[in-house]
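OP here, attaching both records as promised.
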Amino acid sequence: MNKKITFGIVGYGSIAQHHIACIEAIDAAKLLAITSKNQEKRLEIEQQYGIKTFENLEDMLALEDLDVLCICTPNGYHLEPCLAAAKAGKHVITEKPLEINPERCEQMISACKEAHVILSCIFQNRYIPGYLKLKDIVAEGHLGKLLLCNVSVKWYRQPSYYANNNWRGTLKGDGGAALITQSIHYLDQMLNVMGPVTSVSAKTKTLYHDIEGEDIGIAIVEFKNGALGTIEGSTAIYAGYPEKLEIHGCDGSIVLESGKIVDCKLRNPIDLNLEKVKGTTSASTDPTAVALDLHITQFEHIIDCIQNNKEPEVNGEEAIKVIRLLDAIYESSKTGKTIYL
């Protein structure tokens, strides 16, 4: 029987609650400690969970019985904890995105490879049953030659979502806004199904929120397979609409909305046999509304990889793909040029 995998967490914001709940729900996992600069939060953690807390990450990483560091800091503050964890010989799980630009991601990937530790990034929406079915339908050729992919993430966030936080919507802390933090899950799904993008033409703007990053962005992409794609992402569309991923081919079309297949028309119909999802996978109006099940599924997968010395599905090389796409989107908007990848 494998020993329990022990976890430490750096950062104690809202997403850390998801990580704590996942670890507590999995028999093969144990929460060992949490690092937070905030003394009040450390006292709260100690009282609520009865575990060790640390002000400095290096002190927590010195624990000999610590196996994994979960990075729950803001987007642009993932690199330094990852480098420290790799140096200490700890595996790394980071919330999406991996980091805010390809250069910082590449440093994380290199450090973990050199230290022979696993690096994985949370993209729990890859485990939605409806998405997995969509992916199988495309992979099995039921749509025929792929023609077009549409991603639409027209969500809404109250102005207070940004105003009451010192990093959301900032270029240093968030790396942008609506695309890199909200739309990223569905861009990751798009790349996972359609394959690599070869060119991007995009425009991003800030039209509603008082932030540095974009609250609306659109892009036209061309895939290596010759298909075209469109991207819409926003946190300014009142009152928030369900996200969609649409795939169209010569022999059929399939539409995923809020994690569920809502339309599938095939020239040669098949039985979909869809598995129901517990709770919601959408955060179109409430960033805390997402169910925990998918996080647990990915955590279980990563734990199995650690125990059996395997690479996780979403390792560093997978997680950087969407960052390269986002980097091209931002560069295209900034320069007014088509960016070739």
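Record two, same layout:
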Amino acid sequence: MLFCLTSVQAQTYNNYLAGGLTPGFLLAHRSDIKNLAAHNYGIELSYEEEADHTSWGKFYSKPTVGFGLLYYNLGQKQTGHGLGGLVTLKFNLFQIGRTDVKFRMGAGLALLSERFDVYQNRRNQAIGSNLNGSMQFAMLFHHSFNESNHYLNYGIGISHYSNAAFRVPNLGYNIPAAFLRYGIGLKGRPVENEGELREASKWNIEAAMIYAKKQRNFANPVDFYNLGIQLRGLNNVNPIKAWRVGIDAMLDKTYKYANDPTYPLDSIGFIDKLELGVAGGFQWKVDKVDIFGELGAYVYKPAKLKNALYQRMGVRYNLGDRIKLSGALKFHRGVADYFEMGLGYRI
């Protein structure tokens, strides 16, 4: 009897060590910071993993997730240097011949060496704190070298640094740049069976308590602490995508303060600090994290301090099926209102 020996090779997924260079320009998007405009460059070192084998990654086209360390020389003495960490997601948009066109986005925290100081750095009226949030978006052409399992990315994008009005000033840095990245394939890692995502019900209802802090008055900064609630109905398109619609209610004392800075903050009435809005948007799931964007409109606010429309971008971490932790930036036409933190529950 003849026995045939066969070997079964475990399925693996690719992972990479990548380096990148981003020569760019700090854009003077306000007249107050024209003096900060300068050519600059960033250097990134990151680790990336393919994610199309995961339960959520099957709903995207060739997704990869990663974590990178990003250094920026911001081009002037007043702006100094930046160093931070960035969590990234990259996926295919379409293909041209054998070239993939990818969208890459990332978010994280960064330490900036220079900030506004009334005595030592008055010329930097863009950044009021050393610790800032960072975001990055890029469109990249992707070439794979199959023989060596390496890749080349090149394209354009933009990086943003700000503290979401947590401390004034907060005009922030916007840095359009060219992106050049090279990834070196590492030893493949074995695929672990995660099972399939459970099909979500057609509609879910969620409620969240919201807390936010911001400053007003550049000359004499005053801290404001906002509290509110959010209700959202989620219309699930599939296990990783959903439409969002709901209402916002927030208590914000800056309406009264803007009209009369001498008015006692503890004496502001409920109706003079209440703002109500309706909002709608879309969300995407990436493992245990939801990424969402919304457009909202006020139905009531005590004064004309804010624009009639507002926007929100954020992330939410799912602690099981029901409890949600969220962080989001609320802004008006690119001007930050505040960064909100939320504790939510799926009803």
